[in-house]
Specification:
By secondary structure, the chain is an alpha/beta fold. It has a single domain (5-177), classed as Secreted effector protein pipB2 fold. It has two helices and seven strands. Strand 4, helix 1 and strand 5 form a beta-alpha-beta unit.
């Protein structure tokens, strides 16, 4: 069986958002073109890694192609579109720069039951029957997406100034304060 690939080439809207209160948020990425909408769930660390890697790719493009034009895209601060129906949970993530089309490609593959949690390099496996969300976007839109992603990740619980751990609305037991609430 071949994998089901949700292809958005080019994507009209590609955003990160959350559902839930800080500390219990679920992160989603949504891709939309016309009336077609796909939502996938992923971890906060995955969102941060995608944003960091996109910004790194854009820095490398600016260095290698100093005359490259990055069109300005307005910042998208709108909430996720409803209904939020999770197609799958993201396991493997792939990013690439398509120099001939001047687009950034992001592949988000569904997590498999057998994926290990060890830190190892995994590749997008198109020979399996796992679902893949493939999004192609312009350089300017990629930059806007990365900035929103970083803002969504940072909008969680405030860090404790003493230990750096997240502070719940009711406070937290700070190890640097010998277990007293902060």
């Amino acid at each position: 069986m071949s994998p089901r690939i949700f292809l958005f080439d080019p994507v009209e809207r590609f955003v990160v958002g959350t559902v839930g209160i800080p500390g219990e948020r679920t992160f989603f990425i949504q891709a939309r073109t016309g009336t077609r909408l796909v939502s996938v769930a992923l971890e906060k660390a995955q969102v941060a890694a995608i944003a960091d890697r996109i910004l790194q790719i854009l820095r490398e493009i600016r260095i290698s192609e100093p005359l490259a034009i990055f069109e300005r895209v307005s910042y998208d601060d709108q909430p996720l579109e409803t209904p939020i129906d999770e197609e799958f949970r993201v396991g493997v993530i792939g990013l690439a720069y398509l120099a001939d089309r001047r687009l950034i490609e992001i592949d988000l593959q569904a997590i498999t039951e057998s994926e290990s949690t060890e830190d190892e390099m995994l590749e997008i496996d198109t020979s399996s029957d796992q679902e893949i969300l493939r999004v192609l976007m312009t350089l300017g839109y990629s930059e806007s997406f990365a900035k929103r992603s970083n803002a969504v990740v940072a909008a969680g619980r405030a860090p404790c100034p003493f230990c750096g751990g997240p502070i719940d609305p009711s406070g937290h037991l700070c190890p640097r304060a010998n277990g007293y609430r902060r």
